[in-house]
Amino acid sequence: MSELEIDAVVFDVLGTLVDAPAGIRAGIRELDPSLDDIRVEELLALWQQHIDHEQRRMLDSGRPYRTSDVLDLEAARLVADAAEVDDPAAVAALALSGRRLPPWPDTVAGLARLAERFPLIGLSNASRTALLELNAHAGLRWHQALSAEDARTYKPDPAVYQLAVTVSGRPPERLLMVAAHAWDLRAAQNLGLRTAYVARPGGDPPTTSDRFDLYVDDLADLAGQLGHVPESD
């Protein structure tokens, strides 16, 4: 396989580098430790459905833009109401669970290895404040971390991907977008970025019609396929 000619790597964060459901799940368990596994998963689904629905509304101009912090607090209130918890402090703590997401086992070492060769850009739907805390909690290494808040919209709006293009100072075809969500890669591809799908639990797998540049099992595999990336100690 010929080597991709790229100048920087752009990473989706939520789901691709950190296990978003695990962090929210932990927050729900803290909200009410008596909940069984089935109920926790039901409440997790309620949270995710609210976030997805409200982001789509904003993309469709059905609601003015609001940051992920607002959506997380709304989701936390919905979950708390469903769990019959009315403690405002507990709701506030649950809303912040979206900033305490564990990295996947290969993430930290993989980013460090890739950073030896490429500028790394994080590109997330998380707000600026949430992204700062999320990066610190998970130990993510960036040369630049960009929030969709700067475009006042959400992925897959092209304006979000344009943030990375503008900051990098490179043409889109010199950037590699890495994500566990095929929808994310399709949107980046439409703007001209090169694409790499990384398999993650709970991601959005490619369809048979998708044609991404790379398909990788994890970040070590990504580094290997990009070639000439030093092994980490």
Secondary structural class: alpha/beta
Describe the sheet with the most strands.
Answer: 6 strands, parallel
Helix content: 40-55%
Instruction: Going across the biggest sheet, name each strand in turn.
Output: 3-2-1-4-5-6
Number of helical regions = 9
Distance between the termini: 27 Å
Shape type: globular
> How many DSSP E strands?
6
Strand content: 5-15%
Helix-strand topology string = EHHHHHEHEHEHEEH
Spatial extent as radius of gyration:
18 Å
Q: What number is the mean pLDDT?
A: 95
Which regions have little confidence, pLDDT < 50, spanning 5+ residues?
A: none
Can you walk me through this structure?
The chain has 233 residues and is of the alpha/beta class. It has helices spanning 20-31, 37-59, 68-82, 88-95, 107-115, 128-138, 158-168, 182-190, 219-226; strands at 8-11, 120-124, 144-147, 175-179, 194-198, 214-216. Helix 1 (20-31) packs antiparallel against helix 4 (88-95). The radius of gyration is 18 Å and the shape is globular. The longest helix has 23 residues, at 37-59. It contains 9 helices and 6 strands. The model has no long low-confidence stretch (mean pLDDT 95). Helix 8 links the parallel strand 4 and strand 5.
